[in-house]
Write a structure and sequence with these properties.
Strand content: 15-25%
Oligomer: single chain
Structural class: alpha+beta
Shape: globular
Strand order of the largest sheet: 17-18-16-15-21-22-23
Radius of gyration: 21 Å
Largest sheet: 7 strands, mixed
Number of helices: 16
Number of strands: 23
């Protein structure tokens, strides 16, 4: 068996490849960004061919950095930005449209149309998802509705649909497959049967011939070709489920929050399928081989780190993302300034595609430090929204919150997160838990690690942020946040 495990992390802004050893340490990492395409307001696209080219490049670079050949890898896993939608030609393997990114809101009128008299909950009992622009199924329907030629080719079985995991698996192994975690984000899979559902497929209105196989998260999909010649592709997890796996949150009630482009809080509900009454998503956490699936409740926030990027790229207030902490520390508090980052509407627990971003509470006293602090605090406030919904849905009161992702290096944000939640926030030694989760899944599938307990021993705490804010102050700030959210609603009129 190979000495290491490889992991491909195909994210919203970049693609990475990591080589990981038995202790869970990153031996080598290579990364490339890809273009973010904004053809018009609300539209976000990627070039799937560029992403595949970048994937091959980072694999080659990562192996070279580690000084190994593909044969040194026992297996490779994939984790990916979820819901981003690719259509490709089964014959040529070429994408036939730009990929529609999960943040894209062009399907807003379509999802209202699909809801009909029932509204956003039409497909929620079976799929676990409210009708929203976020999910893949309606994105596919939009592509076919807006190109009769594509629709005809889809009807003839010439085209394939997949999320980024499926696109990469196709190119690596030739197999058209997706795992249960990614399939559970399409609005086309039945959560109980873990299979494509005829009623959902007909309701969304796409040909079944577009769909690939659904496979377990921890299982061998096939052997790779090309840059990973001969290596088993043995694990696939959507990025947030991969982060949960990397945080070894395997028990019911264990939770993690990932601070990346968006922000995603998942709590493991075990084999219990909890249907949300408070604006959360019911999703598959993972499935090991043919065993029973584990489920999670998820609160999905569209804009977290993307808000910091916006300050950098659109407003020029900072030169790099890490600089936001120093700028925000120039202000003692937020100066009563609040930022609601509803660039793509609001996700959980509101699900309002008519919302748009706002700053509120501005006075002549406000300066760029207050703006920076408000952008950071928005991520923490949105996490509080989600955690309150989880408590209502599952009766789960967290004793602490494990965190990961790029933003957790920001101590100011992590301390404010602990303060506004009133629970300790725990940052692990290895914060790259998404790529780690993909490696863990692949390694478990081939016996590189024998069982989940072997993975638990790899996890180690780095920093614990204890709440320091008085309850009265916590609730005053959160009340002002809720008032700010109300100002963002109803900006767009259907």
């Amino acid at each position: 068996m190979g000495e290491f495990v490889g992991a491909i992390d195909q994210g919203t802004t970049s693609t990475r490849f990591a080589v990981i050893d038995r202790s869970g340490s990153l031996v080598a990492v290579a990364q490339r960004e890809h273009e973010q395409i904004y053809p018009q307001p609300g539209w976000v696209e990627h070039d799937a061919a560029e992403i595949w080219a970048n994937t091959q490049a980072v694999v080659t670079e990562g192996l070279a950095t580690a000084g190994i050949e593909p044969g040194a890898l026992a297996a490779v896993g994939i984790t990916n930005q979820r819901e981003t939608t690719v259509l490709w030609d089964r014959g040529t393997g070429e994408p036939v449209t730009p990929a529609i990114v999960w943040q894209d809101t062009r399907t807003a009128s379509l999802v209202r149309e699909l809801g009909g008299e029932t509204g956003p909950s039409r497909f929620q009992h079976k799929s676990g998802l409210p009708l929203a622009t976020y999910f893949s199924g309606p994105k596919v329907r939009w592509l076919l509705d807006n190109d009769p030629g594509l629709a005809a080719r889809a009807d003839d079985g010439e085209l394939a649909f997949g999320t980024m995991d499926s696109w990469l698996a196709w190119n690596l192994t030739g197999r058209h497959a997706t795992d249960v975690t990614n399939a559970s984000r399409t609005m086309l899979m039945n959560l109980e049967t873990l299979s494509w559902d005829d009623e959902l497929i007909a309701g969304v209105g796409i040909p079944r011939s577009l769909l690939g196989e659904i496979v377990p998260s921890v299982a061998t999909v096939g052997r790779c070709r090309g840059v990973l010649e001969g290596v088993p592709l043995a694990g696939i997890l959507g990025d947030q489920q991969a982060a949960m796996f990397g945080q070894v949150a395997f028990g019911p009630g264990e939770a993690k929050n990932t601070y990346g482009t968006g922000c995603f809080l998942l709590v493991n509900t075990g084999t219990r399928l909890v249907r949300s009454e408070n604006g959360l998503l019911t999703t598959v956490a993972y499935q090991v081989g043919p065993g029973r699936a584990r489920y999670a409740l998820e609160g999905s926030v569209a804009i977290a780190g993307a808000g910091v990027q916006w300050l950098r790229d659109n407003l020029g207030l900072i030169t790099d993302a890490a600089a936001i902490e120093a700028l925000a520390l120039q202000a003692e508090d937020n100066g009563d300034v609040y930022f609601v980052p509803a660039f793509s509407g609001l996700f959980a627990p509101y699900w309002r595609d008519d919302a748009r971003g706002v700053f509120t509470g501005l006075t002549r006293y406000a300066n760029k430090a207050h703006i920076a602090r408000a952008v950071l605090e928005a991520t923490a406030f949105q996490t509080r929204d989600v955690l309150d919904a989880m408590r209502a849905d599952a009766g789960i009161g967290l004793e602490s919150l494990k965190v990961d992702g790029g933003m957790v290096a920001n101590d100011l944000l992590m301390q404010f997160q602990a303060d506004i939640l009133g629970v300790p926030v725990i940052r692990p030694v290895v914060t790259e838990t998404t790529v780690l989760g993909a490696a863990y899944a692949a390694g478990l599938a081939v016996g590189y690690w024998q069982n989940p307990d072997a993975l638990r021993s790899n996890w180690a705490e780095d920093t614990r942020f204890e709440p320091q804010m008085a309850e009265e102050d916590r609730e005053r700030l959160y009340g002002s946040w809720q008032k700010a959210v109300s100002k963002s609603l109803g900006w767009l009129v259907p």
